[in-house]
Design a protein that fits this description.
Helices cover about 75% and strands about 0% of the residues. The protein is built from twelve helices and no strands. The chain is mainly α and about 270 residues long. The chain is globular. The protein has one domain. The two termini are about 30 Å apart.
């Protein structure tokens, strides 16, 4: 256990140092991602104003808070993608990963966790700057701030497990793009990324309750921007832990079957 902790801390430290060397590039990347939520924000704020000041309980200020926090949650949800797995396997780099006395997923989780530390630090001034223009209505309780911190890390781990599962499909097929696009379509509808889940049709909300997607976007955002009791907050964090455990178990099972299919190319 101590060796594993040392490995995580060392890898996280390396990632932090590396990402700070490219902090300007990181900022431009984060700024480039602002376009998507701003489009959503402008559209829904316009609709809210046209309908008397609110839509489904969301005022323009509430939408501003939702999509402002969205920008951080979205950056926290950037993990090692199926395309990365595809390239790792097709190029032969995976052969070298197998020589390490540690599961490759641990390296992915640790390194990207280090990147997230930098993302959070860089996002703070960006978030403050955006709040000057869009005037978000944001009045969280103290426990919501703490809960939000854990919720965004829970979202990161859930999405890591989901995309790792998709990535391992490349052990069985040479292309994973079509499957990833299908996943992305489901995520847009059932996660709260496109629009707050409470504004979606009832049947969508019911289906989303059985899927992990909303726990990577909607719950982390709502944990900070919407009124939420401590009990509700703890319950949501508990569901995140459940999905992390399910995801980890699924990854381990998939891993056993996937490695058997591996045949290195190049490298």
């Amino acid at each position: 256990m101590k060796h594993m902790l040392d490995y995580y801390l060392t890898t996280i430290k390396i990632a932090i140092q590396t990402q700070f060397q490219y902090r300007v590039m990181q900022y431009f990347y984060m700024i480039g991602m602002i376009a998507e939520p701003i489009i959503y924000l402008v559209v829904w704020s316009t609709i809210a104003e046209a309908q008397g000041g609110s839509v489904g309980g969301y005022t323009p200020g509430a939408f501003a808070a939702y999509y402002l926090v969205w920008t951080l949650v979205r950056n926290m949800n950037i993990v090692f993608t199926p395309y990365g797995w595809e390239n790792r396997i097709r190029s032969g780099w995976f052969s070298m990963d197998l020589l390490r006395p540690i599961h490759p997923l641990h390296n992915d989780v640790a390194y990207f966790a280090g990147m997230k530390v930098v993302v959070i630090i860089l996002w703070i001034p960006l978030g403050l700057f955006l709040s000057l223009f869009f005037k978000p209505e944001l009045h969280p309780a103290w426990y919501q701030v703490i809960g939000f911190f854990f919720a965004i890390w829970g979202a990161y781990l859930i999405r890591t497990m989901l995309l790792s599962l998709l990535g391992m499909i490349t052990f069985f097929t040479t292309r994973v793009g079509a499957i990833f696009e299908l996943y992305f379509a489901f995520e847009l509808v059932f996660s709260g990324r496109l629009v707050p889940m409470s504004l979606m049709p009832t049947w969508v909300q019911q289906v989303a309750g059985f899927l992990p997607f909303q726990w990577t976007f909607f719950f982390p955002i709502e944990s900070l921007v919407a009124p939420m009791t401590l009990t509700h907050m703890l319950g949501g964090l508990g569901v995140q832990l459940l999905w992390i455990a399910i995801g980890w178990l699924a990854v381990m099972i998939m891993w056993r079957f996937s490695v058997r299919q591996f045949s290195a190319v190049g490298g």
